[in-house]
Amino acid sequence: MSDRLEDQEYTDLPSAGFKGSDLPPLVTDEPPRVLIAGAGLAGLFLGILLEKAGIPFEIFERSSEIKPLGAIMCLSPNILPAFEQLGLYEELMSFSKKGIYATYYTDQLKVIARHDSTDGELTGYERILFARPQLYDMLFRDIPSNKIHMSKKILSFQQNHEGVMLRFSDNTTIHGDILVGADGAHSAIRQHLYKTLDKQGLLPMADAKAMSRGYISLVGTTRPLDPVKYPSLLKDDCETSFILGDNKSPYTWATFTIPGNKICWNVIIQLGIAEIADDQFRSSEWVPEQSLGMMDSIRHFKTLYGTLGELFDVTPIEGVSKVYFEDMLFETWTHGRTVLIGDGAGAVNAMQDAVLLANHIYDITPTSFDNIKNALNNYKEERFDAVKDQYPQSYISAKLMYGHTLSERLLRQVVFNWMPKSVMRKQLSKNTAYRPQANFLPQAPKRGTVEIIPQWQSKRVQKEGEAKANTATAL
């Protein structure tokens, strides 16, 4: 078997492809069996939701172990209600700090602007920041050990009206009802599904384009530091700083204080500004030796805690990672029994995908090919406009935080120093109004004064409620 995925669609795959399998009947009252490719944040969050919903699932991860980026992560009010529903909110807050404000500096540490990031009275939640591995570890622990499989590299998948089959590099196979590609922006499931659809003339031209890359980033988290030397570590909220190089530099570097007396740092390079950035972009791999080489060239950059070099020296090199900031809104999210999640910008979007997909999978009853296709299509219909609306905001946010062109510098000056507070408050309300929750769990209490955007109601939950009401009336 070659080291590639081959997606043979239900339109051209004979039933003999599943001979000898224990497939369920074409229509069953049992919930669909969900196969999740990828044990990243999207896949784990979906698994936890399906477990709560009583829907069978298994997660398959190609790596023998996951080493999450040692980077800062931020979660907003747009996903925190779902954490409350799952009973994970308190544990999440135990390793987080509130990100109430951020300060922007020149490379000589002169203040450019101070930006209030949240308004707890308005939104009901503060924005929180923490090291990404801690969130990953928490979610991983919440998945039953028998439902997550490491070192399971998918070589091929096939789907037809009877089901979907995965074939792995260890020559094993598994059958299910739904395949979820949750394996990241460079999803192998998506790439090979698109390849098949392209051959069949079913792939939109927009989905055949390469993703644009505007920035690359070097990220890391220090070991625990001495709060006597770094007293800001003892503050309850996260001290967030963005430091911008001069107008000839492609660099922005940022620091964030997190629980455990640690500092997350992030060096962002804007492509197209200087040759060094484009050289880094052209490098397909960034091994530790390359990281060290680049880190040596920027050791002298100033931060609130000394130079970047001083932070580098107390950061485990194995935890330093290279990240691409990539941006593309795909039009094809589902085909047959296959659906893709987590392709949007950031972890919040990935977990919102998981919430709404779980809602639509929960509504599949009875389990049949037509009901599965309808549910996956309904998921896209409910979710797509919200993701599409968020893309311009993500684009502007990146320019505000990392941009180095003259127009981007002017934009930052206007937004952070001259824009009326009332306008910023209105924008914050708009940005935090979308808060999907699991329909099949008790709803988290409404917090703040923001008017929440309503989501699709569960037909199954409504029917079950009506049935209970009728039974109570009859009694």
E-strand count = 24
Helix amount: 25-40%
Tell me about the biggest sheet?
Answer: 7 strands, mixed
C-alpha end-to-end distance = 62 Å
Question: What structural class do helix, strand and pairing data support?
Answer: alpha/beta
C-alpha Rg (nearest Å)? 24 Å
Number of helices: 14
CATH third-level topology of the largest domain: FAD/NAD(P)-binding domain
Protein name: FAD-binding domain-containing protein
GO molecular function, one term: monooxygenase activity
Keywords: FAD, Flavoprotein, Oxidoreductase
Region (Disordered): 1-25
Question: Gist?
Answer:
The chain has 475 residues and is an alpha/beta fold. 35% of the residues lie in helices and 22% in strands. The protein has helices at residues 41-53, 80-85, 89-94, 120-123, 132-141, 188-199, 275-282, 288-297, 308-312, 346-362, 369-402, 406-418, 421-431, 459-474; strands spanning 7-8, 27-28, 34-37, 57-60, 72-75, 97-98, 101-106, 111-116, 128-131, 148-149, 154-159, 164-168, 173-176, 178-181, 212-221, 240-244, 251-258, 262-270, 302-303, 306-307, 321-327, 334-335, 338-340, 367-368.
Structure report:
This protein is an alpha/beta fold. It folds into 2 domains: 7-67 and 134-209 and 332-431, FAD/NAD(P)-binding domain; 72-131 and 211-327, 2-Layer Sandwich (D-Amino Acid Oxidase, Chain A, domain 2), CATH 3.30.9.30. Helices cover 35% and strands 22% of the residues. A 7-stranded mixed beta sheet has the order 8-7-16-17-18-15-21, sandwiched between helices. A 6-stranded mixed beta sheet has the order 10-4-3-14-23-22, sandwiched between helices. The chain has a 4-stranded mixed beta sheet with strand order 1-11-12-13. Strand 7 (101-106) and strand 8 form a beta hairpin. Helix 1 (41-53) packs parallel to helix 5, helix 1 runs parallel beside helix 10 (346-362) and helix 10 packs antiparallel against helix 11. The protein is globular and about 70 Å long. Mean pLDDT is 84; it is low at 1-21, 273-278 and 280-287.
